[in-house]
Structure formats: C-alpha cells, structure tokens
Specification:
Largest sheet of chain C: 2 strands, antiparallel
Oligomer: heterotrimer
Helix content of chain B: over 70%
Number of helices of chain C: 25
Radius of gyration of chain C: 25 Å
Order of helices and strands of chain C: HHEEHHHHHHHHHHHHHHHHHHHHHHH
Number of domains of chain C: 1
Strand order of the largest sheet of chain C: 1-2
Order of helices and strands of chain B: HHEEHHHHHHHHHHHHHHHHHH
Distance between the termini of chain B: 32 Å
Helix content of chain C: over 70%
Shape of chain B: globular
Number of helices of chain B: 20
Shape of chain C: globular
Chains: A mainly alpha (about 100), B mainly alpha (about 500), C mainly alpha (about 575)
Structural class of chain C: mainly alpha
Distance between the termini of chain C: 53 Å
Number of strands of chain B: 2
Radius of gyration of chain B: 21 Å
Strand content of chain C: under 5%
Strand content of chain B: under 5%
C-alpha cells in the first residue's frame, strides 16, 4: 500500500493542529502555550504549501509560507517577551496564577 | 495629486513613518527627556495622511469608481467599506494620539506606543482595502501584532500582562484558523484573489469548513460571543487611548475582514447572513447582561462593546442575507457612531482614570464609585462621558439613536417576520442597556463628591480637546443624521455587491 | 412668519438651556433671569402661533433618506398643546425662582426644564413620526434627569431610572409604529396616514394602532404602566407640576387624539382605549384614597384624570378629551404648585403631619381650594364642564354603558379623596409642630394666573372647538359656540347623575366616622391599592430575574485561558453544524 505525498502532508497538518490544540487546552505553562501556538502555525503553513502544490502554484505557496514564518516569528517574540515580564512581575509562569481578571 | 497615488500614500505613510517615529523618538528622548517628539511626529503623520485620504475620498465620492492599485504582489481596492473604515480609524486615531500625549506622559516606552499606534492605523486602512485573501490576512496579522504590544503597554502591571497573554493566545489561535481556511480556499479554487474566488467558489463541504474557520478566526477579533472572552480583559487593561481604538475600530476591522472573506464565498451557502444575525442576537443580550452588574468602568464599557457589535451585525447581517440597503447603511453608520461614542466614553473614562489614579502614581482600576460627584470638579469630562453613554444607550438627540434607528428601519422594510422580531429584540436590549448607563450618569452629577474626586489632579487641556470634538460629533450626527450618508451609502452598496451583487 | 414662530418656540427654550448651563452655577441670579426670560419668550411666541392654527402650513427641514424630511405643521391640536407647554412651563420656571432659591446645580435644573419645554413643543408640532419619537424620547430623558435631580437621594435616582425604563419600554410601541409606517409608505408622514389609513394593510395598521396605545399608556402613566408616576414625585415640585401633571403626561393622550381618525376603524382599538382609560381612572382613584403623601395623592389623581381623557378618545370625542386636557393642565398645575408652596413652607410631604395650615398660609389655601373644586368637578370651574363633556361622550351609541357607570363612580371617589386631601392639609387641628411661612412673591405670581385660569378657561369652549374643528378635518369635530356647549352640558341627564355621585362622595367624607366599618372592610383593597394591585411585584420580579441572570452569566467569564480556548472550539463546532444543516432565514 502506498500513501501519496498529499495524504501524508494532510495527516501531518491535522496532527500538528491536533497536538497544538490539545496542548492549549491542557498545559499550564506559559512557554508551552507559546510552543503550542508555534505547532499550530506550522500546521497551517504546511497546508498552504500543500495547497500551492495541489493547484500547481508551488512558488506562490512557498512565498505565502515565508510570509507566515515572518509574522509567526514576531508573534513568538512578543509571546516570549510577555512570558519574561510575567515571570518577572508575577513570579511564575503557571497559567493558574493568571486568572485574576474574572467576571 | 492623482487619486491613485494619494490612495497608496494613505496606506503607506503610517506604515513607513512608524519606524521613523520610533527611532527619532528614541534618540530624542535620550538626549532631551522632556521633549516628547514621537507624539508630535505621529500627529503630523496622521494629519498628512488625513489630507491624502481627503483627496481619495473626494475623488471616490465624485466619480463613484472603485480605485484599484497593485504594488508587486499586493493588490488593493478602495470601495465604500474601505473608505468608511479608513475615515473612522484615521479620525479616531488622530484624536487618540492627541489624547495620549499627556495620558502616558509619565510612562516609559512612549516612542513605542506612538510608533505602534501609527502603524496600527495604517494596517487597518490596508485591511479595509485588501483585495486578496492572503493580503487580507497579512494586514490583519500586522494589526494584531501592533495591538498585542499596545495592550500590554503597562508592562510592569500584572493585570495588563495577564490581559496581554490571553489576547495574544486567543488572537493567534484565530489567525491560525484563518490561515487554514485560506489553505482550503486556495486548494479548492487555485486562487487568492477575492474576485476570482467569488466566481470559482462552489458549494462543497470543504468550502463550508473554510467559511466556518473564517467566521471563528476573524470572529475572535470581532468579539463574537462566545469568542469574546479576551475582550473585557484587554480593553480594560490597555491604556485608555488604546481601549478607545480597540473598541472603536479594531473589532470592527475584524468584522470587515470577515465580511470580505465570507463575501467571496457567498455562493457556497445561504447560511452566512443567518449566522451573522444569530451572533447579533447573542452578542446584544450577553454583552448587556455582562455589563449590567459590572463595577469597573472600563470593563463595563468593554462589555457594552459586545452588545454594540451585535447591533452592527444586525445591520450588516440583514444587508447580507436579505439585501436590505438601509440595514447595511445603518450597520455601517453604527460602526461610525459607535467609534465616536465608545471612543469618547473610553477617553472620558481614561481622563478620569488619569486624574484620579494614574497621576497620583497608582494603577487601580476606575470603579463606578469613583464617579460620584465628579461633575463638580470635572464638568467637561462628566458631560462628555454622559453624552457618550446616553448615546450608546440610544437616546435621542444623540448619534447612537439615529444609527440604531436606521438599522431598525431596514429590518422592518425587509418585511421578514424573523427580522422584525430581531429588531424588537434589539430595541428591548437598548432599554435594558439604560439599566447600566443611566446610573453612571446619575453618579457623575451627585452633589457630594467621592473623597477620591476631591484629591484628583486637573485634566490637561490636550486630553479635553478630543473629548469636545467627539461630543460635538455625537450631538451633530444625532440632530442631522444624513450628514454621514456620503460614507454609509457607498459602504452599504459595496456590502450588497459582496453578498449577491 | 409661522415658520419663524415654530422654530423660535422650539429653539428659544433650547438656546436658553444652553445659556443657563453656560452661565455656571456661580451666578444663580443670572440663571434665574435667563430661565425666566427665555421661557416667557417661548410662551409669547407659542401664543402668537395660535392664529396660524387653521392655515395648514408646513415647515420642512430636508433630511431625507431613512430619516424622512423633518416637518412641522401648526394645526389646532399642535398650537394649543404648544401654548400649554410654554405658558405653564414659564409659570413653573417663575415659581422655581422662589422654590429653588439657594439650591446647588441650578444650571442643570434650568437647562433640563428648558430643554424639556422645547422638546414638548416639537413633539406636538411635528408631522414626522420619527421626529415625534425623537422628541418623545427627549421628554423622557429630561423627565428622568429631573426626577433624579437630587442625585444623592437613592429614592430619587431609583424613581428616575424607573420612569425612564418604563416609558422607554412603552416607547417601543411608538417605535414599532413609526417603523411600520416607514416600511409601508417609505416616509413618516403622520398627516398622510390620518387622511388615508388605507395606505397601510389592515394588519400593519393594527400593529401601529396598538403600538401607539402602549406608548401612550406608558407616557400618560395609564394601566398597566402607571407605577412610575407616583415614584416620580421625588422630583422638585415645579417639575411635578410641569412635566408630571400639565404637559409630558399629556403626550400620550395627544398621540391617541392625533391618530384617532387613522385607528378608529381598527377592530377592538376603541374598546381597548376605553378600557385602559377606565381602569386607570378607577384604580388610581382608589389608590388616592389611601395615600398619605400629598404629592402622591396628586400623582394618583393625575393618573385618574388622564384616564378620563383616554376614555374620552376611545369613546370617540377628541374634543372632550382635549378640552379636559386643557382644564386639567391648568388646575393640576395650580394644585401641584400650591402643594409645592405648602411643602416648601412646612418642609414635609406627609399629610398626617399637616392640618390646620389654612390659617397660616391663607393665600395658598385659597388657590388650592379653587384647584380642588375644579378637580372634584363642581360647577362652575373648568373641571366641571370638561368632565361632563367626557361623560356625555360615554353615552354615545355603541359605547358600553357599564364603563360609563364606572366613570360616574370614579367622580364620586374623586370628590372623596380631594376633600380628604384638602381637609388633612388645611383644616382641622394641627397634628405636628410645623413652622409655616406664606408663599414668596414669585410663587404668588405663578399661582394667581393659574387660579384665574381655573375659574375662566371654560369660557374658551367655543373658540377652542372652532380651532380644532377647522384645522383637524379628519377628527370630525363639530364647531359649537360656548353657549351651545354650556347648554348641552346643563341639559344632559348624565350631568345631574354625576353631580349626585360627587355629592355622595362628599357625604361619604362627612360621614367618614360612621363608615369606618365599611372602610375596614375595604382595608384589604386599600393595601392592594397602595401596592398598585401587584404591578409593583411584577416590576420587581422582572428586575430581580434580570439582575440574577446577569450575575449568573458573569460566572462564565472564568479568566482561565484553557476555558476560553474551549469556548472557541465549541463555537467552531456549533458554526460547522449550522452550516452543515444549511440553516437560512425563512
């Protein structure tokens, strides 16, 4: 039995998204949340490249992916910077201590 | 000047000027700590940008031709919706810049603030004009990036950081969903151009999934209930000027992005408009109930933004699903009036927050008890705040009444029983909202000021100027609502083109 | 000429409002002067407008689109109510010079009073239903602001917000009416639909008719919305006289009278209007019998008298309703301002603490008794003639006789509570050590013309009927001379029956000790009446449920990031399901 390249990629995309969302729902650590977001974006990026390949526009798909990488890096940087400040001001990276804004 | 060039400059100037503002501001602050060069540069940028937008606007209104330009892979289109969003964001942004000078004068990182504020304004103008799906995403993401940093501007405050984290994570999850949707659409139609997708998109399960992802992805930013959970935190913890921008134009920009994406998929299903109307009902009710028992002023205003998003959705939803031009125009009119009223409310609350807390060096939230008797010491601010919240409550002769009215008229004109029931529901919600707006006004005019008011610092003139301008605007548009027709009419036509044409 | 007069009558008070506000609370004398001059000027322009009443002019401010052109027309109904609003408005302002002397925040007070006067004029003169709704809401807004004028008093704030919310709730009816009108005609022209009700399909017309009835009931404090008016008595007394007795509460009656030709054909509408009026008149009269707060008694009597007017419209006599509106505005403003002079003088509103005040403040007693006799409906004061005209209208063929009998009983009850009130305040032995001083000059200047008016406005019956008859063709009012109208009243059997009922009411008051046993039997009714027959419970329950569900809902904002993400995924699943089902708008 052979598995085609698109099928493999689709499975990878779904896997990355699934892991990312699972992590967002369960993790209590801020850094892990940022990592989970990274996994999610990587999944979406793969989907874009695959879409480019399926429609015969690989260049376009790749340039989309590169743009996404840039934006995604900035998100990661801001996320990490926030994490640093959270650690400094609140003293922990545990999400359970980030629940003061309620109701 | 050629209108196309002016259009390009309108979009480009704030984005290009942003790093310059940052650098010059940074250097100047180091040499002369007293001189706040960044904010004056930002103001200048926005005023010049306003001039460019004026050229574009007059050309568009005279000829009624959409402007189309392409810079490399970026293709842009100026239609009624783009123009309305640009006018709203630039006008409110300029006033907020003016207001923010004294408001954050004691905080560090001012050059970052003004640079990012300017950039955010530019990205929102761009978002409104994006003509291809991926461009739309890029502008949307750039706007989000600016706003993350601005929300967490008070980076040594635990609450601001908490709000920033939640905002970033939920927004970022939203943008990922949008990317997935773009992937699906791209794979299905082989194109990213909105016009080409409009023609190519046919009903299929994958396209429905893409639409759902668009609704949820953009819906996080547009604060659809129950995706709104970040909003009360972010809007209440951000600096007040940023709160005004977030509630006044950023969530509306999220909605515009959603409308563009769904408009491209309008042939896929008849459900888009029904979904918008469903969210409208939920947003109105939940926003009002959440605000009803709220004791923090800025949080209350943030929740009320949910219900006002509901009114806007009611208007544009009826435009999308039933083709009602008056509804759509009313929805866009409400975007304008809400930007003015909620902007004014946040600026006035911010002025009080500044003079009662921040100028004394503490970061406690402004609670409703702090408003008691504030009119004795701050008559202008109290009046502005009253105009804002009574306008939000839909009392004439203020602008909020007229925009709600136009939405209601459109709804009744459709003759659809569900739509009429929704309008009545919306009107009932307006009455409910007075249950929390009116007591705020009463507190302001008590005779006995709260002790905190007596110790309050004066409010700087530069903070009062934007409040006066916005108050006047709210009253004038309330007395003469058709003054906004030149903006709302074309926007409504553009929306009807998007969903049916 | 008429154009300028209309704009002046709306604009002068509004300009005065701005100036009073701008003058600042540090210059109270300037504020008093400005308020008096602008309100008197508006009164003069409104009176000058009356001769234009039958010229069918139209003033148009082009706005267009979804908002329609803003149009004004000075017809008989409009100019007459505009004159009442501005003339009684200026008297209330003059009275305030004494009553509000030394109060803080006069700027806010006068600004809202003048804002109200202008809006009330606009409300009765406009022929654009949207604009009418706008003015309608502005009067509600100013009424709320003035009830809550003493913002430090939680009762005043609660009363203001209650009035605002209940009238807004009722106002939805007018909103629906205006939206229906626009949806079917593409405009808001009131005159068009009155001239030709067939413009609207029968169903839509019925929605509009009953919507307007709900709005009118809320505004005029009629059943089942009457509960806000007694609580509105926290307002400064000149406000109670102006807004909650003489003008704003008339807006509901005005609305019904204005649209009567359009709605009279709607099945069940006239009967519903009569029933609302009759129930309000009866229930409020019962409540007035047990109330002990002087202003609340007057408030209940206002509800009751407005009930008469609403009943009259339903019974088909717009003229009788409007003529009683004129009488009532004058004598009730007199009673309220008189009560204000009493309260200002003794510092309490509780009638149980008063008694024997007549000797100390004879001038106030004199004018108050004149007003009370008019309220009772005794000849020859203005209240007598107009009330009898209403009762006569109830006799017209087609109107149920039992309703008329109830209205006759109410006249007896009115006599009873009015005499009880006068007695408790001015006669008998003093029941508490109260220091009383006679009314000030400005108060007397305001009271005297009202007292004279109470004794004389009935002489205007003839010219009033001519004015309405010529300018309101659709209302089908026959023009009669004063003499004819008086003869008609005096020869009608129902007049004598009503006088007998009034006599019975008075007799009951003289024999109150012997009737104490019956009174106790009715104590349950009295208790129910003071609780507004359970309507207060309904109001409270609605507020409670809303507040509690709001409090419960707040718990959904957990502040936990993972929960927020879960909401997002849940919403995604719901949206996908809806899309999979293909739900559309039917």
């Amino acid at each position: 039995m052979t598995i085609s390249i698109p099928t493999t990629v689709i499975i990878m995309v779904l896997g990355l998204i699934g892991i990312g969302i699972y992590a967002l729902l369960t993790t209590r650590h801020l850094i892990k949340v940022v990592v989970a977001l990274q996994l999610l974006v990587k999944g979406a990026m793969l989907a874009l490249v695959l879409a480019g390949r399926l429609t015969g526009q690989e260049d376009l798909g790749q340039s989309l992916a590169i743009t996404v990488i840039i934006a995604d890096t900035i998100v990661a940087v801001i996320g990490m910077a926030l994490a640093v400040q959270v650690r400094r001001v609140i003293g922990t990276l545990d999400l359970r201590s980030l629940t003061s804004l309620r109701r | 000047m050629n209108a196309n060039d002016a259009f390009l400059l309108t979009l480009g100037l704030p984005v290009v000027a942003s790093p310059v503002i940052y650098l010059i501001g940074r250097i100047a602050t180091r040499k002369y700590p007293k001189v706040d060069l960044a904010r004056w540069l930002a103001l200048l940028t926005l005023l010049v940008d306003g001039y460019f937008l004026f050229i574009v606007g007059t050309e568009f209104i005279q000829t009624r031709h959409e402007l189309l330009i392409a810079v490399g892979a970026i293709s842009l289109r100026l239609d009624g919706i783009a123009l309305l969003l640009a006018v709203a964001v630039l006008a409110l942004g300029t006033l907020v810049t003016l207001f923010s000078g004294p408001a954050i004068a004691r905080d560090s990182g001012r050059e970052t603030y003004f640079a990012l504020l300017t950039a955010m304004i530019g990205t929102i103008i761009g978002l409104g004009a994006a003509d291809d799906l991926f461009n739309l995403w890029v502008w949307f993401e750039a706007m989000a990036l600016c706003s993350y940093v601005l929300v967490a501007f008070y980076r040594n405050e635990a609450a601001a950081l908490e709000a920033g984290v939640k905002y970033l994570v939920q927004s970022a999850l939203g943008t990922v969903l949008v990317l997935l949707a773009i992937g699906l659409v791209f794979a299905n139609t082989g194109s990213l151009d909105l016009e080409e997708i409009r023609i190519a998109a046919q009903p299929s399960g994958l396209m429905l999934a893409a639409g759902a992802l668009f609704i949820i992805g953009f819906g996080v930013k547009a604060a659809l209930v129950p995706l709104h959970t970040w909003l009360p935190d972010a809007h209440s913890q951000a600096p007040s000027g940023i709160s005004a921008m977030l509630s006044g134009v950023v969530i509306e920009a999220g909605l515009v992005a959603m409308l563009r994406a769904l408009g491209a998929l309008h042939l896929v299903t008849v459900s888009w408009g029904a979904l918008l109307l469903g969210f409208a009902a939920v947003n109105m009710l939940v926003g009002n109930l959440m605000a009803l028992r709220q004791t923090q002023v800025k949080r209350l205003l943030a929740y009320s933004s949910l219900s006002h998003m509901g009114y806007i959705l009611l208007g544009v939803g009826a435009g999308a699903v039933l083709g009602s031009e008056n509804s759509a125009a009313g929805g866009f009119f409400h975007i304008l009036t809400h930007a003015m009223m909620k902007g004014l409310a946040f600026l006035a609350a911010g002025a009080l927050l500044y003079s009662l807390h921040q100028a004394l060096g503490n970061h406690d939230p402004l609670v409703v008890d702090d408003l008691n008797g504030a009119s004795r010491k701050y008559p202008l601010t109290a009046f502005a705040f009253s105009v804002a919240v009574l306008g939000l409550g839909g009392l004439p002769p203020l602008a909020g009444f007229m925009s709600k009215w136009q939405i209601f008229v459109g709804g009744f004109q459709t003759g659809n029983a569900w739509m009429i029931a929704l309008v009545v529901f919306a009107a009932l919600n307006s009455v409910l909202s007075l249950g929390y707006y009116a007591p705020l006004v009463n507190r302001l005019y008590r005779r006995q000021p709260a002790s905190i008011v007596e110790q309050g610092k004066p409010i700087p003139v530069l903070m009062s100027v934007p409040m006066v301008i916005l108050s006047l605007g709210v009253v004038v548009l309330g007395l003469w609502p058709s003054l906004a027709d030149w903006l709302t009419g074309p926007a409504a036509q553009s929306l009807l083109m998007l969903f049916g044409g | 000429m008429a154009e300028q007069l209309i704009l002046l009558t709306v604009g002068l008070p509004w300009l005065g409002a701005l100036l009073c506000w701008a003058a600042g609370d540090r210059h109270p004398r300037l504020q008093h002067t400005l308020a008096v001059s602008f309100s008197v000027a508006a009164g003069i322009t409104a009176l000058l407008l009356i001769p234009f009443g039958n010229e069918r002019l139209l003033v148009t401010l082009p706005i267009g689109g979804a908002f329609g052109d803003f149009t004004f027309s000075p017809d008989g109904l409009g100019v007459f109510l505009a004159a009442i609003a501005t003339v009684i408005g200026s008297l209330a302002v003059i009275f305030s010079v004494d009553y509000m002397r030394g109060e803080a925040q006069l700027g806010r007070y006068y600004a809202f009073v003048l804002f109200f006067i202008g809006a009330m004029v606009g409300l009765v003169l406009t022929t654009n239903l949207l604009l009418m709704f706008v003015f309608w809401e502005i009067t509600a807004l100013t009424s709320y602001a003035l009830i809550s004028f003493h913002n430090d008093d939680p009762k005043a704030v609660a009363g203001g917000i209650k009035a605002l919310i209940i009238t807004q709730f009722g106002g939805l009816g007018l909103l629906i009416g205006a939206l229906v009108l626009f949806a079917h005609t593409g405009g808001y022209d009131i005159l068009a639909v009155i001239a030709n009700p067939g413009l609207l399909p029968a169903g839509a017309l019925a929605w509009m008719a009953f919507g307007c009835l709900a709005a009118a009931a809320a505004k005029s404090a009629q059943f089942p919305f009457q509960t806000w008016l007694p609580d509105a008595m926290e307002a400064p007394t000149p406000i109670s006289a102006l807004i909650h007795a003489a003008t704003m509460v008339n807006a509901g009656v005005y609305l019904l009278a204005r649209f009567f030709p359009a709605f009279e054909g709607v099945a069940g509408w006239r009967e519903a209007v009569m029933a609302v009026g009759m129930l309000s008149a009866l229930l409020a009269a019962v409540m007035a019998i047990v109330a002990t707060d002087l202003k609340r008694v007057l408030a209940y009597s206002t509800v009751s008298q407005l009930g008469y007017m609403v009943y009259a419209v339903g019974a088909g006599s717009v003229f009788a309703a409007q003529f009683h509106l004129l009488s009532h505005s004058v004598f009730k403003a007199l009673l309220f301002l008189g009560a204000g002079a009493v309260i200002h003088s003794v510092g309490t509103r509780d009638m149980r603490e008063m008694g024997g005040l007549g000797k100390k403040i004879p001038f106030v007693r004199l004018v108050f008794v004149i007003g009370a006799l008019a309220l009772t409906g005794l000849p020859v004061l203005n209240g007598f003639w107009s009330k009898e005209l209403i009762l006569e209208a109830g006799l017209e063929p087609g109107n149920p006789l039992w309703m008329l009998i109830v209205m006759l009983v109410v006249s007896g009850l009115t006599a009873f509570y009015t005499f009880r009130m006068v007695w408790l305040v001015f006669y008998g032995q003093p029941r508490a050590e109260l220091h009383a001083h006679e009314a000030g000059t400005a108060m007397k200047v305001a009271l005297a013309p009202l007292a004279i008016g109470t004794m004389t406005t009935w002489l205007l019956a003839g010219s009033f009927s001519r004015l309405l008859s010529e300018s309101l063709p659709a209302q089908q009012i026959a023009a009669h001379s004063t003499g004819e109208i008086l003869r008609e009243v005096l020869t009608a059997s129902v007049t004598w029956i009503a006088l007998a009922a009034i006599g019975l009411g008075l007799a009951a008051w003289w024999q109150r000790d012997r009737l104490a046993g019956i009174g106790r039997a009715f104590s349950g009714l009295g208790k129910a009446a003071s609780n507004s027959f359970g309507f207060e419970d309904v109001n409270r329950a609605v507020v409670m449920i809303t507040q509690n569900s709001a409090e419960k809902l707040r718990e959904t904002q957990t502040g936990m990031l993972s929960v927020n993400v879960a909401y997002l995924l849940a919403a995604l699943i719901v949206v996908m399901t809806i899309l999979a089902l293909g739900v559309g708008l039917p």
